[in-house]
Write a structure and sequence with these properties.
By secondary structure, the protein is of the alpha/beta class. 37% of the residues lie in helices and 20% in strands. It has ten helices and 13 strands. It has helices at residues 13-22, 79-88, 104-111, 132-138, 155-167, 186-197, 208-217, 222-233, 245-250, 257-268; strands at residues 2-5, 26-31, 43-46, 62-68, 70-71, 74-75, 93-97, 115-121, 140-143, 149-150, 174-178, 184-185, 202-205. It has a seven-stranded parallel sheet with strand order 3-2-1-4-7-8-11, with helices on both faces. Strand 5 (70-71) and strand 6 (74-75) form a beta hairpin. Helix 1 crosses helix 5 (155-167), helix 6 crosses helix 10 and helix 7 runs antiparallel to helix 8 (222-233). The radius of gyration is 19 Å and the shape is globular. The N and C termini lie far apart (44 Å). The relative contact order is 0.13.
Length: 271
């Protein structure tokens, strides 16, 4: 049994590879980078998620597929073609990582004959890595919406749920909201980060327009900028609600933000 992971070198994908390898599964990774660092034992397939014609034989012999529901520009337009190819190759199980907007991937799965599971996580704890440079260099965090509440989730917990859904029965047609174990505001996260690092960190509030300009400067499309900033300005209830999915599916509690910071402390430390 072989499992193909798209987004294999991303925040969730690398943890999902580890989960599947740890349980003795064969893992194949789709990556655009032929030099990407992969765990020992993972089969590399070079291809572009958005261009299924570049995949070659990536789906040959695959039992389970982990598919990103979106790319940098929004919902994954190529999803129907990818899933059509997957069906022809005999793929039986699919997990799709929701990107905040239901799109072609979700629609194609509902119309197909796969045993599929949709993963709907809250904001990733790994988004905090965007704070690292300023924390190291100036001991501060610049973000909008200081009181925005979020039940941020550890990316490894999303991967753990995905691994169970790909390898065990009982998850066909399930839509799993996935959260961390607590609701934290932006200011709360700065406080936790400082406490774990043993540093006094300062928070500087950005305006909504400053936050948009920062995303534009980083090269994000305007529709992505509007969607992301709009989401944070008025987060949906699901984004600030703690749910027990991680423990119900995996049998262990969701990891806390403090645990995540401990794992990544070196990234925030002065060099």
């Amino acid at each position: 049994m072989t499992f193909l992971i798209t987004g294999a070198t991303g925040n969730v994908g690398r943890h999902l590879m580890a989960e599947l390898l740890g349980s003795g599964r064969n893992v194949r990774a789709l990556t655009r980078n032929p030099e990407a660092e992969l765990p020992p034992g993972v089969e590399r397939v070079v291809g572009d998620l958005t261009r299924p014609e570049t995949w070659g034989d990536a789906l040959s012999g695959v039992t389970g597929l982990h598919l990103l529901g979106g790319d940098d520009n929004g919902p994954l337009a190529a999803a129907p073609e990818i899933l059509e190819r997957a069906a022809k190759e005999g793929v039986r199980r699919v997990t799709v990582l929701w990107n905040g907007q239901s799109g072609p991937a979700e629609a194609a799965l509902e119309e197909g004959n796969f045993a599929w599971t949709r993963l709907e996580p809250t904001e990733f704890m790994s988004n905090t890595l965007g704070w690292a440079a300023l924390v190291r260099e100036e001991g501060l965090v610049r973000e909008p919406f200081p009181e925005e509440p979020a039940a941020v989730v550890h990316e490894a917990d999303i991967a753990a749920v995905a691994a169970v859904a790909l390898t065990e029965d009982g998850h066909d047609g399930a839509v799993y909201p996935i959260s961390g174990p607590e609701v934290l505001t932006t200011v709360d996260r700065v406080r936790v980060l400082g406490r774990v690092l043993g540093r006094d960190l300062r928070y500087v509030e950005l305006t909504k327009e400053q936050a948009k300009e920062r995303m534009r400067a980083a090269g994000h499309a305007e529709q992505v900028v509007d969607f992301v900033i709009g989401w944070h300005a008025d987060p949906p209830p699901a984004g600030r609600t703690v749910v027990p999915t991680v423990e119900q599916v995996t049998g262990r509690p969701a990891r806390t933000f403090a645990q995540w910071v401990e794992e990544h402390a070196a990234v925030f430390s002065s060099r």
